[in-house]
Prior knowledge:
It contains 18 helices and 19 strands. The chain is α/β, with parallel strands linked by helices. The strands form four sheets. A six-stranded mixed β-sheet has the order 7-12-13-3-14-15, sandwiched between helices. Helix 14 (445-455) packs across helix 15. It is elongated.
Amino acid sequence: MPGRRLSNAERSLADFWENPPANFPKPLLRSIAVDGDPGLRGVKRMTVPFLYPLTVVCGRNGVGKSTLLALATLSAKPPDGWSPFWGNTKPRGSQSINYAFRDFFHRTAGSPPMDGMQLTWVSMFRGNEIERTQRYNGRRWVNVADPGRNPNNLELGPREIDFIPISRIMPASELAALRSTFTGNEQAQVVQLTPAAVQQLSFIMGKQYQSAEVRFAKGLVLPKCHSQADYTGFDMGGGEGSVILLLARLQDMPKGGLVIIEEVELALHQEAQVRLMEVLVSYCATRRLQIICTSHSEAVIDAVPRNARVLLSKLEDEHQATSAVSTRFAVHQMLGAVQPELEIITEDAFAAALVGEAIAGDLRPRVRIHDIGSNAVLARQAVANLRTRPDIACLSVFDGDCTEADVNGWIDSERAERALHPSFLILPGNGVAPEKWVLQQLQVDAYRDLLALEIGCSAQIAAGHVAAMTVDLDHHDCGHTLHMRTGISRDEARRLVIKAVARSHPELDLLRARVKEMLGA
């Protein structure tokens, strides 16, 4: 999948982004930061890096995606004569060559004051990393000098920037201004799609086009094409028209420009979404464009390399940007429901709980853990997963009372002649089962004290509990022993015993590292 295995174009883009030529003529936006109360559209603190020329920003509604796009649009000034694209819903009355803060952040008399709000853009320009900061003070934005830099080096070169809004998908037939403007006799400026762009249009939409164009009149825009017959935006769906408009802008975008696309997948079916992202990557590669877009589409997220993905989320007053996320993790965050990226199978419930406590934290929602039976059954299921579900990563975790030779023998007996090599790991234990290993670790003062903290008793009382669990004839039932001595429910008692050892024990670092590796974290 694109997240892991890069095409030649994607590898070339990654190399360019990490080491842009020192003489590259346009600034490359590397990060945006927001800081200060009362916040910008509720965003008080947020730093978003751009690790790749193409960035897909995803996340739930209200986490700051639109705010980020607007700020990216304000990251540099355009060269003389550049006219940005407004579509059919211009934010202001007159056409201009420059975007302004008021175009995206409309303020009224009742808007809260923004004094102290600070915005920072970091760009790479001619081999130098340039940080530009503005602070809101007295109803206007003022530049903040960087004391560590020479003021003469703070100037960014100009850059063409285009913001392609949601309005591109609005059906022309529903806009009265378009119906009255494009009557057939209007004096329109016509932009023809190049043969290469027409070929890209055919590829994205999955049907053959002979020609396509965009007509501009009175600040309004109307797509037109020929695919077995001539028809305009009045007779095409929003998705088809939006792709024609987007390709018309991309083909004329100068080298090194910045294109910002709101909800890139809108009105397109999944195959068209994936093909559109492939075309966007090609423009980044051939024209060295930087493209930043938002999306809620699993197909779009999955179609780009991991470094091209940024997930925005909100944690109390902080807005967090997580880069290089997996598709499943991003979708899980937007769905609010677990979509595991890695399955871990164990022999029994105790081992499953031990693994779960060992990897508690951000990784835990990305993993599904379940116990399936004896070690032989575990080996059988590990091989079966590779045969029937090769697209889902699986880690088999065997108890510490077996050896690597044992595991390889069980796997060999299951895979027969097929070259199947399931991932597996053996829990620490030095030849003993997980239950006994945990009780052994509780003899160590540090872990006994953690258990005391978990159950809310003194170290001496915890030592008595540990002694009672250790001499119990059935070591598999340590939770029952602690339950009888404390009144804590049996399941909760077992969890606290495991947690006291598993959360920080260094012998479980190998498990944590393997899980991170398999998740690409």
